[in-house]
Amino acid sequence: MPRSTDPVGKGSAKDHSMVGTVPRNPAIDETHPDLVNPPSTDHGLMPNLVFPFSLAHTRRESGGWTREVTNRLLPIAHDLAIVNMKLDPGAYRELHWHIQSEWAFILSGSCRIAAVDQEGRNFLEDVKAGDLWYFPAGIPHHIQAFEEGVEFLLVFDDGCYSEDGTFQVTDFFAHVPREVIAKNFGWTMQQMANFPAESERYIFPGQVPPPLAEDRVFSPTGDVPRTFKHSLLAQTPEKFEGGSVRIADSSNFAAAVTTTAVLVEIEPGAMRELHWHPNGAEMQYVISGKGRMGVFANHATARTFNMETGDVGYVPISMGHYIENIGDKPFVYLELFRTAKFEDVSLAQWLANIPPEVVADTINVPRELIEALPKTKSPLQRH
Fold first, then answer.
1. DSSP code of 17?
2. What is the C-alpha end-to-end distance of the chain, expressed in Å?
3. Model confidence over 232-279: pLDDT tens digits?
4. CB distance 302 to 45 below 8 Å
5. What string of DSSP letters covers 52-121?
6. Which candidate in 94, 267, 335, 368 is catalytic?
7. Does residue 198 have an active-site annotation?
8. What is the pTM of this model?
9. What's the CA gap between 215 and 205, in Å, rounded?
10. In sequence order, what DSSP letters do the residues of 265-280 get, joined into one string?
11. Which helix (H) or strand (E) holds 369?
């Protein structure tokens, strides 16, 4: 796309912030107007807190594709890394495991997931759009798509994690002498003659799995005692003026001890209230809509970021922020945390639950405004 040499906002009310003629990329300027013409409340230097998946490299395989946003692309993202993966119908994400835990949210389609824990107990379930899964660190597992294929997010509790660093079973076999493998399994060299030629298969084609009952394996040590599956969309949402939220943490998804998620839907014109998280940084993934996120740090630093479908955002621990729906459709996104429990501090609730004269004197407003604030939290607001 050719770059424009016209100042952004020429002839508009925002013309005052663009002086002179400079080369611009209009596609980026149009999707990030608050970086081009920031609010007057923005101040100081702050790292980038938003990165679009569209700018991430896509790794294409014979059975699908994957792309990731880690702290190599979003350096501030210390706690979490996020992966977007698509499997074709019947395709496998091969047998593998990680040093990190794996949390997942299905965006579309369906698949079968399976794992075996350290005691040989197994887990086999089917999951669909809106479902979660969670595999603890080191637990081996695999994924296989059904006839419509599947697309999902994976979240790992380490910002520098990369999907390329996974432990693959085919890679393991490729780097162990054949005679050692034969001794371990009681196989012959002839029986191993057709081992995969590649060192890892990663994502590869397969057949759509049979009905779940036909695929079950009964382990003598039993099933995994805590389910690795959770149906987030089946939860009754908490509804507020301006939208709804669904929270999945260790209180209702016991297996997920390192990752917490909140599915937020903000109606047009509404906002996620001014708040912060005392127990962890927040990563976001935008499922649909257009929003604006304002973030306040210490040292009088603040920055405003625009967010659209497919964008990844990140707010460091305890930084104050809000997210506002600036489109004409619901703004739907995930809040993700490397924590066992969801915690947030509401600015309005804090101010409502201390002596009102303290707040009134501090921000120089009539006391009755503070006394009228609700003492209970309302995560979404529309006024």
1. G
2. 41
3. 999 999 999 999 999 999 999 999 999 999 999 999 999 999 999 999
4. no
5. EGGGSPEEEETTEEEEEE-TTTSTT--S-EEEEEEE-TT-EEEEEE-SS-EEEEEEEEEEEEEEE-TTS-
6. 335
7. no
8. 0.92
9. 18
10. EE-TT-EEEEEE-TT-
11. helix 367-371
